[in-house]
Amino acid sequence: MEAYIGLRSLTYAQRASRYLTGRGIPASAARAPWSGEGCAYALRLRPGDLERGREELRRAGFDLGKSYLRDRGGTLREAGT
Hints:
Number of domains: 1
Number of helices: 2
Structural class: alpha+beta
CATH superfamily: Hypothetical protein rpa1041
Number of strands: 5
CATH topology: Alpha-Beta Plaits
Mean pLDDT: 91
Strand content: 25-35%
């Protein structure tokens, strides 16, 4: 399973990734799986780290988009955070 937090650009996702990783939450910048052919980016992290990661990023002033969870079957659904 994977969790994603939508962000506005690749550079912003990379900054968020470095920020969370520095605080002990493994994260990586990725192309948003819900974007299809578009240019959306996201932060990929473990589902168990999603809420803490969102809170850490909010506290640091990051502008966050919607969050999504991908289950083992590959289905993507919006997270209720």
